[in-house]
């Protein structure tokens, strides 16, 4: 013991100083590297948004009004909210709800009104979505009902078949009620009923029936007055009432019911009032504001190559969303299925174990293959050999699925392997089979990690251009896709085309607006996936 003590005491104290110095240097180097990365990304995004919003065309007087009416109150509220945690929490919740509601509204418009169509939506709502949601709600209200899981499974399996057969047989209903009326009954009314249930569960908010009636009345009013608002049709009004007005109204009412949370509404209120005043006074005062490229006309117009003022991204947005939804379906089922087999069922010894190890190694290698190689593979296998077509929706979806499938499998394997073996053994000890253990123990606990990997993978897929070039996605297409075997445009491909246009207005204004649109679509999908992941992490689902 004396020898050990002498050895420890004889260590040169200078070594400790050197170690601390290296640690401090490493800490500051990593901090500077992170700061450079964040600042560089911020400058790039600021440059893109500056061009997309046409800020260079605004006069100094407009900037002064914008600073006094919008920026100064917002900065003041942020500084004050640092001393009031409740105010910051309320403001952040309201901002997130508004942003999510707007993004959700665009997603509903794309999925229901553009891709599916009102007849397809009504068919599947009557046969699949309505019955499944009804059985689920009944199970939440009546915990003793043990058949609800089978009921939801039956609706999910048999409903699409019945819905497909129903398409084309309800044309009389569709033409008689009209698209706005169908969305009112199948989207706005369920959202209003959901908000009413939430209000009833909160004793401070009063009677939920009034909330349901108010939202339904707002939807009915939209059928009469929606066409008065430029660019907002009656159908779009219904979808935004469900996705934007319902959650925003509920969040505002819940915060108004608690006097301690009123302070948090000051920031959002100041923004709304300041922006409204600026819009009202800029005309009479002769203030010239920005001329944004990124506006409603840009989102609802077909792409163009000659006139920048009429160019839009409507068809590329529809194509990208169509493709990425299929990619998400393919990769989730195939990726999670492969990961489950490799972690839970594949052998660890013998021939099966050797094959499983070989598959794991090759999957890891495939994650580093350049995307252009996957484009060539998609062209050769899907477009040529199988015959899915050059530049079609299905070819693009299958090619991008191959691209991100290794990432999804690897992240899903890591999430599944992170589930403690003690929980598996406890499930087996209670008499559960392997499938029951996987379904009830492994999947619920690994789902947050699986969703995280899928989010990252989809983020890569939606921005890829090289595979789309290889499989022949057209550089310019004015029409949105109508089926799996229809040639489609895509947002990254369209942005790449505009970058090559010699017209400076395309290279800067229109291109920047396309990049902002791509970011919005990506953030919308990520927000939905993160919301689902967080619910599973909290155990709310």
Notes on the structure:
The protein is 77% helix and 0% strand. By secondary structure, the protein is mostly helical. The longest helix is centred in the first third of the chain and has 40 residues, at 13-52. The protein folds into three domains: 11-52; 78-294, no CATH class; 308-538, MetI-like fold.
Short key terms for the protein model shown above:
541 residues, mainly alpha, MetI-like fold, 3 domains, 0% strand, disordered N terminus
Question: In the residues, how many domains can be counted?
Answer: 3
Tell me the series of helices and strands, N- to C-terminal.
Answer: HHHHHHHHHHHHHHHHHHHH
CATH superfamily (homologous) name of the largest domain? MetI-like
Structural class by helix and strand composition = mainly alpha
Task: Provide the CATH architecture of the largest domain.
Answer: Orthogonal Bundle
* Radius of gyration of CA atoms, rounded to a whole number: 27 Å
- Pick out the low-confidence regions: 1-8
Largest beta-sheet details: none
Q: What is the terminal separation in angstroms?
A: 58 Å
Strand segment tally: 0
Shape: globular
Under CATH, the topology of the largest domain can be stated as: MetI-like fold
Proportion in β-strands: under 5%
CATH class of the largest domain reads Mainly Alpha
Rounded mean pLDDT score: 82
């Amino acid at each position: 013991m004396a020898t050990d003590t002498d050895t420890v005491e004889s260590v040169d104290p200078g070594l400790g100083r050197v170690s601390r110095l290296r640690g401090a240097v490493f800490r500051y180097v990593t901090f500077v590297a992170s700061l450079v990365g964040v600042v560089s990304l911020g400058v790039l995004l600021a440059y893109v948004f500056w061009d997309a919003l046409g800020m260079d065309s605004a006069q100094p007087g407009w900037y002064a009004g914008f600073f006094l009416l919008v920026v100064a109150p917002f900065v003041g509220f942020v500084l004050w909210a640092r001393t009031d945690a409740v105010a910051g929490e309320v403001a952040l919740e309201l901002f997130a709800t508004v942003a999510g509601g707007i993004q959700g509204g665009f997603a509903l418009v794309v999925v229901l009104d553009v891709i599916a169509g009102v007849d397809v939506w009504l068919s599947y709502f009557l046969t699949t979505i309505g019955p499944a949601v009804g059985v689920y709600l009944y199970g939440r209200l009546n915990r003793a009902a043990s058949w609800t899981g089978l009921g939801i499974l039956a609706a999910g399996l048999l409903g699409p078949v019945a819905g497909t057969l129903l398409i084309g047989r309800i044309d009389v209903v569709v033409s008689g009620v009209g698209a706005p009326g169908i969305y009112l009954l199948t989207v706005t009314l369920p959202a209003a009923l959901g908000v009413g249930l939430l209000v009833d569960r909160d004793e401070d908010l009063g009677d939920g029936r009034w909330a349901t009636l108010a939202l339904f009345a707002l939807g009915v009013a939209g059928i009469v007055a929606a066409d008065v608002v430029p660019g907002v049709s009656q159908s779009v009004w219904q979808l935004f009432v469900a996705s934007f007005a319902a959650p925003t109204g509920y969040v505002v009412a819940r915060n108004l019911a608690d006097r301690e949370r009123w302070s948090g509404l000051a920031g959002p209120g100041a923004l709304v009032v300041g922006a409204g005043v600026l819009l009202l006074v800029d005309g009479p005062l002769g203030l010239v504001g920005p001329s944004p490229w990124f506006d409603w006309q840009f989102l609802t117009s077909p792409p163009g190559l000659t006139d920048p003022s009429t160019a839009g991204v409507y068809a590329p947005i529809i194509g990208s969303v169509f493709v990425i939804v299929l990619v998400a379906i393919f990769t989730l089922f195939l990726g999670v299925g492969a990961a489950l087999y490799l972690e839970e069922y594949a052998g660890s010894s013998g021939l099966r174990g050797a094959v499983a190890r070989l598959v794991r190694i090759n999957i890891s290698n495939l994650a580093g293959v350049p995307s252009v190689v996957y484009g060539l593979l998609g062209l050769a296998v899907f477009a040529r050999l199988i015959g899915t077509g050059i530049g079609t929706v299905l070819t693009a979806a299958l090619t991008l699925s191959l691209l991100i499938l290794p990432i999804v499998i690897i992240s899903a394997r890591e999430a599944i392997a992170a589930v403690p073996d003690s929980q598996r053994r406890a499930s087996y000890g209670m008499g559960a089979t392997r499938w029951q253990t996987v379904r009830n123990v492994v999947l619920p606990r690994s789902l947050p990690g699986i969703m995280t990997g899928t989010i990252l993978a989809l983020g890569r897929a939606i921005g890829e251009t090289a595979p789309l070039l290889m499989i022949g996605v057209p550089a310019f297409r004015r029409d949105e896709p109508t089926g799996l075997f229809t040639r489609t445009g895509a947002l990254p491909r369209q942005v790449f085309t505009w970058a090559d246009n010699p017209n400076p207005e395309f290279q800067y204004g229109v291109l920047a607006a396309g990049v902002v649109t791509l970011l919005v679509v990506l953030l919308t999908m990520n927000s939905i996936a993160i919301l689902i992941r967080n619910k599973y992490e909290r155990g709310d689902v």
